[in-house]
Design a protein that fits this description.
Blueprint lengths: L38 H11 L4 H14 L4 H9 L5 E6 L5 E6 L8 E6 L5 E3 L15 H9 L3 E5 L9 E5 L2 E6 L1 E5 L6 E4 L2 E6 L4 E6 L3 E2 L1
Helix pairs in contact: 1-2, 2-3
Length: 218
């Protein structure tokens, strides 16, 4: 996606940019992949796998989760998100569904929201590459905020719980409205506004892209 040079935008993912769109796994995920390990199991996983070298981390994490009772479906989902975490909740919303994941080893944001079972099979809504960077300057409210706050940055909104995302079934596909916040330069800086994005899919579940669904200054 082309980046506008004059646009100052930071769309920060909790770990690294997660290109799940390139993952070959086409398994359909549902509530059978849910996994809710106890605090003891997670502490053991952190202590056991936290310092394991990268190539061996996935195997270590899988073994720990299986020991804590993860089902084969849960393990498949863990692998589908590159062994970064597990599915904590699930919403059946039609052709494309919503999986809520917890990333125990993330440095900052542990809660993630994933759109699953479409094409591509897994999309992290906080993937920087999905930000509609070319469309943002066209929104007059955003443009006004950018003039006022030259270091304006985009960050994920609250990802706890399951009520923050809205799913709509349309005649020609599906739409998911996901909240984000605008801040004056950094994650801990003052909030300057809110900005929901629309994730659009056609009726076959093919991802069409994202759109700015509105900008509200604070």
């Amino acid at each position: 996606m082309k980046t506008t040079p004059a646009l100052c935008v930071l769309f920060v993912c909790a770990t690294s940019i997660l290109l799940y769109a390139q993952h070959p796994n086409k398994q359909k995920f549902d509530a059978a992949a849910l996994f809710q390990p106890g605090m003891g199991a997670m502490q053991t996983a952190r202590e056991t796998c936290g310092k394991v070298p990268g190539p061996q981390f996935g195997n270590c994490f899988e073994q720990q989760m299986q020991a804590a009772g993860a089902s084969p479906q849960a393990v498949a989902f863990i692998h589908a998100i590159h062994d970064n975490g597990f599915m904590r909740d699930f919403k059946d919303t039609g052709r494309v569904d919503i999986a809520f994941a917890f990333f125990p080893f993330a440095a900052n944001e542990n809660q993630h929201c994933l759109l699953v079972n479409g094409t591509p099979n897994v999309i992290d809504v906080d993937d920087y590459n999905l930000l509609p960077k070319d469309d943002l300057p066209q929104n007059p409210v955003y443009a006004a905020l950018l003039r006022k706050f030259p270091n304006l940055a985009v960050f994920p909104g609250d990802r706890s719980g399951t009520g923050f995302i809205t799913a709509k079934n349309l005649a020609d596909g599906q739409q998911f409205i996901v909240p984000y916040v605008l801040v004056d330069g950094c994650h801990a800086c003052a909030r300057t506004g809110s900005m929901p994005l629309s994730f659009d899919f056609d009726r076959t579940g093919k991802f069409l892209g994202t759109r700015v669904a509105g900008v509200t200054p604070m």
